[in-house]
Each structure stands twice: as C-alpha cells, then as structure tokens.
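Job type: complex structure
Entries:
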Amino acid sequence: MPNPSYGTLDASYQAAGQLAGITALVDAFYGYMETLPEAAKIRAMHPQDLAESRRKLSYFLSGWLGGPKLYAEHYGGIRIPLFHKPFPIGDAERDAWLLCMQKAIAEQPYTDDFKEYLLTQLRVPAERIRQVNVTQQR
Ligand code: HEM
C-alpha cells in the first residue's frame, strides 16, 4: 500500500535517506550506467569523468524530492526536458536510463512502496525528455 504522504513536504527526501541516501542512489545509478551494455549509448553521451554528473544529479534529486534545493543554489535554474534537448534520446535511451535507475533503486535500503513510488515518479520526466526530443527532431 503506497504511503500517501510521499510527494508532500519533504516526505520523499526523508524516505530516500536525505542527501547521503540520494548520493548512494546516484552512485549506484552511474555504476550501472558504466557497466550495463544497454546503457553504453547513454554513457557515451556523458563526460568521461562522471564526478560532476553525479553531484548534479544528486543535488537535483534533493530538491526534486522535496529536500534542500541544492541544484538551484549551486547551478541556478534548470528545465529538465529543455536541458536534454541536444541529446538524441528516444525510447531506447529513455528505457536504458530508467533501467539503471530501477536497478539502483532496487538495492537501496528503501521500503518497497517508496521504491515503487520513486521509479514511477522518475518515469514522468524521463518520458517528457523523450517527447521533447522527438518534437525537436521531426
Ligand atoms: C531519459 C533519459 C535520460 C538521458 C539519456 C539523460 C542523459 C543526460 C546527459 C547526456 C546529461 C549530460 C551529461 C552531464 O553533464 O552529466 C545529463 C545531465 C543531467 N540530467 Fe539527464 N538524462 C536522462 C534523464 C534524466 C532525468 C529523468 C532527470 C531528472 C529526474 C535527469 C537529470 C539530469 C541532470 C540534473 C543533469 C545535469 C544537468 C547539468 O549539467 O547541469 N536526467 N543527462
């Protein structure tokens, strides 16, 4: 039974283990991106050194989950679909990103309902990125 409070105030940020928990999630996520064959193409879109990518995604997710808005504080505003427009992201690339997230989420010490909630929520911007990309390419 999903906890109805996720998505309100900082409930999701707390469920994710605050910044330390989010950092562990993002480390696992990029670990999968570096090793899964399905993710080779999206890995190649990223810089060779993923340190900055890890920090940016962790900071972004902090605010996105209702915690401190660290990305905005450090880097300013971002519109996720627009930011990703230059990258060729279709169904396969969206699915590869979500596969890395799914595997990373699965190994975190989260409750099952938060795992399910988080992946469901992340599908929304991932799909939006793909849609914006398609609009631009055609
Ligand atoms: C749909 C599949 C996705 C692909 C293939 C993808 C790929 C990329 C690439 C190639 C970069 C630039 C490399 C870098 O500077 O790190 C990037 C940056 C980023 N992505 Fe994604 N991404 C996807 C989905 C998402 C989603 C769903 C989110 C948010 C929930 C997200 C958040 C970010 C952030 C915060 C950055 C750093 C922006 C910056 O450089 O300031 N991405 N992504």
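Summary: Helices lie at 11-15, 18-35, 40-45, 51-64, 70-75, 80-83, 91-106, 112-137. Residues 89 and 130 are 6 Å apart (CA to CA).
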